[in-house]
Design goal:
single chain; mainly alpha; 3 domains; 3-stranded antiparallel β-sheet; 8 helices; elongated; binds zinc ion
Length: about 210
Amino acid sequence: MPNQISNTLKGYCPHCFTSRNFNLDERRGAIINCANCEKNFTVLDSEKIILSEITEGMCPHCGSGVHFTLQQRAGSPVLCVKCKNDFLLSDIHILPKYSEINYVKKLEELMSPNGKVGRKEFLYSYFGIALGNFVFITFLVAIFGNTNEYMLSSILTLIVFLAWGISAWAVICLGIRRLRDINEPPATIIVAFIPILNIILLLWLLLTPSKNK
Ligand SMILES: [Zn+2]
Ligand SMILES: [Zn+2]
């Protein structure tokens, strides 16, 4: 196929996996001399490389996380630095990507008064925050509570105050989102600061089903 021009515009050197753009001559079949490893190849050789989309995974022997090089993504064996065993990319367990878990987004949602929240999520989040806060503060006090050191007890007080403040904010945001979900004005959250009425508000928020406009 001497006159056929390959559609491949970009590819990898099959020897060292350096990526490069192909010019017209190279796409017609001219020999390419790799600028990195100085070995020769053609666009056709480059097209034979199948590079795995997987960039990180778990060693099937010991379970530690491994990042893959281009060579390994093209099929070279991977040597685990932890357990010194080798394996192929096709043997691995894929790690969930950080962006897929999206803890950051979840946390942002939790700390924001925007949007709506349903009954179930409100219930879980509310008691999750309350329990988390309780456990955290109890834990701190149990470990450092008896200290006579002024610096340490000041820091402890500050941390407890911060933890309390952050969870109070999260609960207020949660309440505002739940109020929006049941078509009530978000300003109703003011009731949360009035004793006894705040308990009624909580029950109301826990029990009222969502309303869609
Ligand atoms: Zn090369
Ligand atoms: Zn390993």
